[in-house]
Write a structure and sequence with these properties.
By secondary structure, the protein is an alpha/beta fold. It has 2 domains: 174 residues, Flavin prenyltransferase-like (Rossmann fold, 3-Layer(aba) Sandwich); 210 residues, CoaB-like (Rossmann fold). It is built from 15 helices and 19 strands. The strands form 5 sheets. Strands 12-11-8-13-16-17-18-19 form an 8-stranded mixed sheet, sandwiched between helices. Helix 6 crosses helix 9. The longest helix is centred in the last third of the chain and has 19 residues. The structure holds ligand PMT. The site of ligand PMT has 29 residues, from helix 11, helix 13 and strand 16.
């Protein structure tokens, strides 16, 4: 399966009162087809048209309906939900909801979430054509657009009330297409980016190897964010069980030696190199031809240093903008700054790998990014969200350096 722009995106779908609410159940399925993780919030009006049970069944998640529901708050409270979302999509968005959003109401769960989120907000209006044309609705839409709220539709056509005109909610697939556009930026349009991700495996014999806990999630999220920013992305990947982001060229490797070869083969014409792979620092000097048999109480392996690929890239005569990662269990800032200097990097993204909820394998991470004379903390968030912020930062520093 190939990844789409909505793969792994956390979509908070707000459903407000209108006959088009029945189409939103199909919208949830279309979003899930694209790999999105969907949570649904329904207003009281929406529940007059469709039951929460329908959305629970299609989304596979509990549906949120009340601002002050102690059970829901004990699970994922409204502030957590607002932070969880990569995007809030309100479909259908009624005239009443648009007005309340424009005026900053926070008297139900959905409007409160919209105020409490830093994620982009997208609305798919649906209402009677006369209500759509009314000066009040026009002005509310202008206010929302000025604030950066993206509006998808409405379409023109026959309406449930018998009228004909603009006011129909877009079809679910059209909304999915429009929503994917939120994650596209032109920050790295036409730029060639080489990224490494995942672990390496260093063979001891035909059946055993030395490796680490990297799942590849961070590097793959960076690759996806780079594609969304318009880059031409090649991903050198260690053995992982992740799907390749749409539009990414993937080169599979196993060992640190393979990774070094693949990077050196592709680095020449790239402008940015991002090294998120957890590359082995040592490999087995003698790989046994046959399975090593158990003998005695202990055994000794002779290990040799691998090539430091990141440092080699930075040392090229015409190096790309070179970004390393630093995986640390202590003294994060000190070790990261030391690697930035020692390997002559343009930037380094440091993360802690001693917390089971962050770093290796987890869905979330937190980064502290350093460059010469500057740094920025990217607080705990999903790896997708962090990757987008990291790519924005890289693009800014890359353009500044040029
Ligand atoms: O894959 P996940 O489960 O999502 O976890 C993400 C991650 C923790 C692996 C990732 O965020 C991360 O920190 N990647 C770098 C891991 C690492 O090897 O860090 P390091 O501090 O040991 O190495 C510093 C840098 O040198 C890294 O950019 C590394 O890719 C590079 N390196 C290291 C050794 C080597 N022989 N060649 C290299 O290029």
């Amino acid at each position: 399966m190939r990844m789409t722009l909505l793969q792994n995106k956390r979509v908070l779908l707000g459903v407000t009162g209108g006959i088009a609410a029945y189409k939103s159940a199909d919208l949830v399925r279309r979003l899930k087809d694209q790999g999105a993780d969907v949570r649904v919030v329904m207003t009281a009006g929406a529940q007059s048209f469709v039951t929460p049970l329908t959305f629970q069944a299609v989304s596979g998640n509990p549906v949120h309906t009340d601002l002050l529901d102690p059970d829901a708050e004990a699970g994922m409270g409204h502030i957590e939900l607002a932070k969880w979302a990569d995007v809030i999509l309100v479909a259908p968005a009624s005239a009443n909801f648009l007005a309340r959003l424009a005026y900053g109401f926070a008297d139900d769960l959905l409007t409160t979430l919209c105020l409490a989120t830093s994620a982009p907000i997208v609305v798919a209006p649906a209402m009677n054509q006369q209500m759509w044309q009314s000066e009040a609705t026009r002005e509310n839409c202008r206010t929302l657009q000025d604030r950066g709220v993206l509006q998808l539709g409405p379409a023109k056509g026959d309406q449930a009330c018998g009228d004909v005109g603009y006011g129909r909610m877009l079809e679910p697939l059209e909304i999915v297409d429009g929503l994917a556009g939120v994650f596209k930026s032109g920050d790295l349009q036409g730029i060639k980016v080489l990224i490494t991700a995942g672990p390496t495996q260093e063979a001891m014999d035909p059946v055993r190897y030395i490796t680490n806990h990297s799942s590849g999630k961070m590097g793959y999220a960076v690759a996806q964010a780079a594609v969304e920013a318009g880059a031409d992305v090649t991903l050198v990947s260690g053995p992982v069980s992740l799907t390749t982001p749409a539009g990414v060229k993937r080169v599979d490797i196993v060992s640190a030696k393979d990774l070094a070869e693949a990077v050196m083969n592709h680095v020449e014409d790239c402008q940015i190199f991002i090294s998120a792979a957890a590359v082995a620092d040592y490999y087995c000097a003698d790989i046994a031809d046959q399975k090593i048999k158990k003998s005695g109480d202990g055994m000794t392996l002779t290990l040799k240093k691998t090539q430091d690929v990141l440092a080699s890239v930075a040392a090229l005569s015409k190096p790309p903008f070179t970004v390393g990662f630093a995986a640390e269990t202590e003294k994060l800032e000190k070790h990261a700054k030391d690697k930035l200097e020692r390997k002559a990097l343009d930037m380094i993204a440091a993360n802690r790998v001693d917390d089971p909820e962050l770093g290796f394998h987890s869905d979330e991470n937190a980064l502290h990014v350093f460059w010469q004379k500057g740094d920025q903390e990217l607080p705990r968030a999903s790896k997708q969200k962090l990757a987008r912020e990291l790519i924005k930062l890289i693009s800014k520093r890359y353009k500044k350096k040029k």
